[in-house]
Write a structure and sequence with these properties.
alpha/beta; 21% strand; 2 domains; Aminopeptidase; 4-stranded antiparallel sheet; 10-stranded mixed sheet; Alpha-Beta Plaits
Length: 467
Amino acid sequence: MNPIRLAAALLLAGTAAPALAHTPDEAAFRDTYKELVETNTTLSAGSCTLAAERMAARLKAAGYRDEDLHLIVEPSHPKEGNLVAVLQGTDPKLKPLLLLAHIDVVEANRADWERDPFTLVEENGYFYARGSSDDKAQASVWVDTLARFKREGYKPKRTVKMALTCGEETAGAFNGADYLAKHERQLIDAEFALNEGAGGLLDEAGKPVILNIQAGEKFPQNYRLEVTNPGGHSSRPVKENAIYRLSDALVKLRGYDFPFESNEATRGYFAAMAKLTPGAAGQAMAAFAANPRDEAAANAVAAANPSWNGILHTTCVATMLEGGHATNALPQRARANVNCRIFPGTSVEQIRQALETIVADPQVKITTLETRSEISPPPPLTEKVVAPARKIAAEMWPGTPFVPLMAAGGTDGAFLTPAGIPTYGLSGFFADAEGSHAHGLNERMRVKSLMEGRTFLYRLVKAYTSK
C-alpha cells in the first residue's frame, strides 16, 4: 500500500474527534489482531496459509460452518494460502459486498528494528510490528466484524464476503487476489469491494484534518532501458560507450514531464484540499479543479508537494542501474530499470512508445517487463457507495472533510476492478503526517485510530448490508 501523506504544515487543523466509548468485544479483537500480526507472513520465511487457517479457526469458533469458510491454496504455492468467508444474506436479489485485505507483509530484519518486528508491542499510544498497519489492521477488522455479526445474530440483507489474500507485497510472485479473480470469480463475486488504500490525516495536535476514500489508482509498470556494444580494453577508450549512452537517455527522461491529467477522484480531491491549504498552493488547487487544462495551476500544485505531483500525471523514474563487466574493460552492456506510475486511461505500450520518443535513440532498447494486472478506469463514486460512508464519518468525526482520492501507489484493487468488482479504499484509520512507517522500520498503528477505524468499518459494513 502507498497512501498519500500531506505535509501537516500546509493544512489547517480539523475538528477534534469526540471521545468514543470502548466498543464491544474489544479484548477479542485485540487477540485477533495480535495473533494475525505475530504470524509471520513474509515471502521468505512466513506462511499466509497458517495465518488464513488461524483466522478461519476464529470465525469457526464464532459460529461459522465449514461450508462458509474456503481456504484457497494454489498447489505450487503451499504457503501462500487465501481465506474466503461468507455470511449469507437474506435477499438473493442483492449482490454481495466484498471485504478485501492482504495478509502478507514486507520483509523485516530484526537487527534493524528497535523491537522484534513479529511481536506486537503497545507503546506510547501505538502498536508496533511488521504488518501492524499494512495490512493486518484492516484484515483483523474484517475478521472481527464477521465474528461480531455472527455472535450478535445479525442477518444481513446483502451477503457479506471476506477475502484475505496473499502476495500483494511481492511484485512478480503469486498474488491471491489475482488468483481468486481468475479462478474463483463466483466465490468472490460482489457488487463492490472495500479495501485498503485510503485513510485519514491528523494535524500536529492529533485532530482529524481529512478522511479519504480511494477510487482508482495509478498502474505500476517497470521498463528496462538497455544499451549493448562490443566493448574493449579500457586503455583504448572510445566515445561510443554503453554507460555514457544509457546515461544520456536517463538525462533526457529526467527532463521530461508527462502531460497533466485528471479524473473525478483527482478533481474532487484537489477541490476539497484547496479549502484546507493556505496560500498559493491552495489557490492553484482550486484553479486546477475548476479547469484541469490550466497548466500553470497544475505546475504550481506539482511543484508544491511530490505527493500531489504523483497524482497529477504519469510519472517515470530510474530506480536501478547495472553496467559493465570488469573494472578494466569498456562496458559491453548497461541497463536501467525505470519505474512508471501510469495514470488510468493510458496503456502500458503507449508509455513504452513514449519512452522511446523521449529517449530518441534507437540504440537504447526499451523493453516492457512483467505486467502486474490489467489497467482499468477508476470505479465510479456513486452515492450508493459514498453516502453511507460520508454519513458515518460525519457522526464520528464532525466537520472533517470526506474527500475522494486516487492513489499513486498500487493495491489489490488493481485485480478486482478490471474483473468487474469495483474496489474502493476506505479504512477510517487516521495517521499523522509521518505516517505508519509501512514497508519501513518500526511500522506502527495508532491504538486510538485502530479502535475508531474498527468502529467505523463495522458500522459501515452494517449500513451497506442492512438496506
